[in-house]
Design brief:
231 residues; single chain; 7 helices; Lysozyme-like; globular; 6-stranded mixed β-sheet; alpha/beta; two-stranded antiparallel sheet
Length: 231
């Protein structure tokens, strides 16, 4: 594997501010744009009236746009929570993937886009102390409010590339309901509500979004917590 990132295109977004004093960059949040095409998405991310921005955007053909310097607090996560933190924007880097999002045209993320994302993620984590379990989707930090990048995003592929986590080895011992709730909070989720469980399943069991802490969901969470050193 290489950390070589394809040449980037530059476009300045005004939608950022200073990071909170003392906040380390230790999270990476992935989004989809939810727009019809890259041109519309980039215009929105660079429109001061919209007040939404991200550090990077990646088109379906793999073109990477650098929109906001990494040392700035991009306005991408909004009202969110992870592992006790509510100002996710101050401690994260945001990447927008061009995709129409949930609806009749929602589709999987093309090969060129995924290859570019992997290279960009490896480059980012080589410069910032971001552990794999803190590479999350917008839906993870804002369950019930956001669904992106969604169940068609290939999180398992990112884990295979050494970038994030995937529960390949399922734990045989299942946590109790109380232990499951505690593990959800320890892993990062705000709680073990139906919305949070769906967000977890959207990320780690995308084929079956029930919102129920069934045995498979519990086993996957236990495996992930163990991988992350949180069990």
């Amino acid at each position: 594997m290489t950390n070589t990132v394809p040449p980037m295109r530059e476009r300045e977004s005004p939608n950022h501010g200073p990071r909170r004093a003392g906040a380390a960059i230790d999270m990476l949040v992935l989004h989809y744009t939810g727009m019809d095409n890259a041109g519309i998405a980039l215009d929105r991310l660079c429109d001061p009236a919209k007040q939404v921005g991200a550090h990077y955007a990646i088109e379906e053909d793999g073109t990477i746009w650098r929109l906001i310097p990494e040392d700035r607090r991009a306005w991408h996560a909004g009202l969110s929570f992870w592992a006790g933190e509510t100002d996710i924007n101050s401690r994260s880097i945001g990447i927008e993937l061009v995709n129409p999002g949930h609806g009749p045209d929602y589709h999987s993320f093309p090969e060129a886009q995924m290859v570019a994302l992997e290279a960009l993620c490896r480059d980012i984590v080589s410069r910032h102390p971001i552990p794999p379990h803190r590479i999350v989707g917008h839906s993870d930090v804002a369950p019930g409010r956001k669904r992106d990048p969604g169940e068609l995003f290939d999180w398992r592929r990112l884990a295979a590339a050494g970038i994030s986590l995937w529960p390949e080895k399922i734990e045989p011992a299942l946590p109790s309901n109380a232990d499951f709730a505690e593990l959800m909070r320890r892993f990062g989720y705000a709680d073990s509500s139906v919305e949070s469980i769906i967000a977890f399943q959207r990320h780690f069991r995308p084929a079956n979004l029930t919102g129920i802490a069934d045995d498979e969901t519990k086993a996957r969470l236990a495996a992930l917590a163990k991988q992350a050193g949180l069990a």
